[in-house]
Amino acid sequence: MAEDGNVTPMERKWKHPIFVFFKDARLVLKMDSIGRAILSIAVPAAMAFAADPIASLIDTAFIGHIGAVELAAVGVSISIFNQVSKIAIFPLVSITTSFVAEEETIERLNSIALKGTNIEKSSINGEEAKKLMKDDVKLENLVNGLIKNDEKEMAPEDGSKTGPSKHMTTKSIPNKAVFKKQKRKIPSASTALLFGAVLGVIVTILLVFLANPLLNLMGVKHGSNMLLPAHKYLTLRALGAPAVLLSLAMQGVFRGFKDTKTPLYATVVGDVVNIILDPILIFVCHLGVSGAAIAHVLSQYLISIILLVRLMTEVDLLPPSMKQLPLSRFLKNGFLLLFKVLAATSCVTLAASLATRLGETTMAAFQICLQVWLTSSLLADGLAVAGQALIATAFAEKDYEKATSIAARVLQMAFVMGLLLALLVGLGLQFGSKMFTNDIHVKHIITIGIPFVAGTQPINSLAFVFDGVNFGASDFAYSAYSMILVALGSIGSLFGLYKVDGFVGIWIALSIFMGLRAFAGIWRMGTGTGPWSFLKK
């Protein structure tokens, strides 16, 4: 800055919002307070996100050894199930994480202020109390220590009883019950579970009764060899929809608490059970694709039970009245994100539908490429969750500098991770395609898709993390409207490129789709608009 206090032209240039993406870029891999906070949330979240798709990949590997027809059929059914369940749950999970983070932050700040007031009224030094107000955990530890020290001073060496300490009276000791862990009162948690249960039942009913029409819509016509196995798998998987939606809603609550270890534990336990049951039900019990579906459903219910039991120990899930639940806020923002997820998943579902029309062999190869593409890309969702929870907390605290630093760091980390994923996915698919199929024709088509699956990883990582950044800032409207525009352009390119170059054309269009998603995020922050308008000041 110039000596007279005015901003020089060079400084003004570097203050443009677009340069926020390069803020402290040299620290991208440094384990400072921001780096540790992000990774403590992101790593368990990423592992939890990866656990279920990895289980799906293992499902795919088992089913692939039944036959190419069954693999293609299950691929279509999974696309339908994911489309319908994401439409129902993605808006709910996203807003739940942000709302719970906000409510938890407000409750924590109010609790600290209240305890600080109580301590100031006690005989503890007033200056000491002010320091304690900054950290609730330190406050509880100190009071527990004072109680123990006072008890020691009250007891003479001979073990006989004596009167109170000369330093503190019994009345001056803050009531230890005040610091006893209480169940949190988070209305958004109860609301999320209510919506999750209702939506789960609705999804089950829709998939069971509309299985054939949905399969026909995806290109599996009457008389197709894929119809019977696809119908079996889809209707059985539908029975697990309530568990899937409830478990994801609860995961949204835990993410709002910045606790991603509990969802990881539950998911890993459930998926291990799924992996164990797969070969038993598929090959030993000779249930085929039905066995794979049953194993998946049972694992989802186990995950839900684990999460519900843990959540009930932390949160008061039964509010005094329905009026305390933020139903209108959930519905308003939920509908915005409903349009977003409809637009986003329609592109991927359309791509799967077009691949189906290219034949069973091409669809089988596309299913494997798509599963790897989504599995590796969704690892970035770990960073997205960390960014969303931390940014939502920073906005609730009105600490915009902190929000900016977190947003910049998670985006930089996402890009670096995307580069590493590109290398790993490229090499992994090149040498590991035989894990999924023994069909030489399917493996040949997979080889054609590798440059797209691997090359788009940096772009995909940025696109997913930008979603988390926008949700953390409660910028739900922009996320929805921008995605609709992106989807319209991408759907047009899908139809056009599919007609021109079939399988390759589909993957080019999907690459364009993810590129436009990333650009929409860059535009919002880079122009300093919406909740990021403070970047212009």
Please sum up the structure shown.
This protein has 537 residues and is an all-alpha fold. The protein contains 18 helices and no strands.
What does this structure look like?
With 537 residues, the chain is mainly alpha-helical. The protein has two domains: 19-110 and 182-536, no CATH class; 123-173, no CATH class. Helix content is 76%, strand content 0%. The protein has 18 helices and no strands. The protein has helices at residues 9-14, 33-64, 68-121, 126-132, 136-154, 187-209, 211-217, 227-238, 241-256, 261-284, 289-314, 327-356, 360-377, 380-396, 400-432, 440-455, 457-472, 476-526. Helix 3 (68-121) packs antiparallel against helix 6 and helix 17 (457-472) crosses helix 18. It starts with 8 loop residues before the first helix and ends in an 11-residue tail after the last helix. The model is unreliable at 1-5, 7-14, 136-140 and 146-180 (pLDDT under 50).
Number of DSSP strand runs:
0
Rounded Rg: 27 Å
Structural domains: how many: 2
Q: Rough shape? A: globular
Distance between the first and last residues' Cα: 15 Å
> How is the quaternary structure best described?
single chain
Q: Tell me the structural class.
A: mainly alpha
Helical content (DSSP H or I, runs of 4+) = over 70%
Biggest β-sheet: count, sense, barrel?
Answer: none
User: Strand portion, in percent?
Assistant: under 5%
Uncertain runs? 1-5, 7-14, 136-140, 146-180
Would you tell me the overall average pLDDT?
81
